[in-house]
Amino acid sequence: MQPFTSLADVCEISTTEVTHMALKDAIQTQPMPAFETDEEYDTMTAEASAVAAPAPAVAQASVPAVAQTTAVGAARAPVKFPPIYADKQDNFDIETVVGLSMAVERIKAEQGACYIGNDSLGTRCRVEIISWNYRWILSPGLQSKDPGYEESKQFLANTYDNQTVYGKDVTVEEYLQELKEVHAYDKAHKSMYIDLFGMLVWTEKKGEIPEEERKMVVVQLSQTSAGQFAAFCQTQGVLVAKGVVKSVSDVVEIEAVARTKGSNKYTNFSFHVAK
């Protein structure tokens, strides 16, 4: 499987499909968690950053959408409706991403609200986007209720190019095979995330934050939330290309949306133009 290198890769769809498909087709071959739970989301992202030892920067596949080639080597046509914020992808290199992920505060979606730690920001907040990147978490596949869960957390790992495990001299496929065959984690899998870095400028509870008091945060998007982000970027890209809107601000409004599926309750992020 080829790694995603731009929002255009995960949103290469027709304008009528934009708000419905977005990231779905591009990640259909990746294992999707049964439900996007806060427990899985927070534990996996935090622990994976902590267990990854520093290593030389992994070369990333950073191919502009207009220069990508097909499997037979023919040049791909330019993206007709380029998504917004494509210019923000990978503004931070891998080492910076790893360092910031362990240093800055994280905004998470929980119980229908945006949270930093135990502090609720309200259902909405606004972030000025500085950089975003793809990240895949390699997990043994256990949940907190499963026997051996705590022990399994030591095997959480990250990959930023979907090919090489960060901090380990091993490929993604080799590592997953090791988890399954050597450590007997038959549910081992990888899950795609997006790390969205920016300045927190407004929250529903506190309103506009003075410029001198603003701080950098990271919003870590699981697969479902990443799909919402991709759909938003592509939709706005279409509107800009058609001249419906002249431009889009670097500030995006993020909403925490509580959802229920059967007996499972979870919260996703959705994205909106900041008014």
Features:
7 helices; 275 residues; alpha+beta
Tell me about this structure.
This protein is an alpha+beta fold and 275 residues long. It has one domain. Helices cover 24% and strands 28% of the residues. The chain is built from seven helices and ten strands. The chain has helices at residues 7-10, 18-21, 38-51, 94-103, 149-152, 172-181, 223-241, and strands at 105-110, 113-116, 119-122, 124-139, 157-159, 189-203, 207-208, 216-221, 251-261, 264-273. Strands 1, 2, 3, 4, 5, 6, 7, 8, 9 and 10 form a ten-stranded mixed β-sheet that branches. A hairpin with a 2-residue loop joins strand 9 and strand 10. The longest helix is centred in the last third of the chain and has 19 residues, at 223-241.
Short description:
The chain is an alpha+beta fold. Helix content is 24%, strand content 28%. The chain has helices at residues 7-10, 18-21, 38-51, 94-103, 149-152, 172-181, 223-241; strands at residues 105-110, 113-116, 119-122, 124-139, 157-159, 189-203, 207-208, 216-221, 251-261, 264-273.
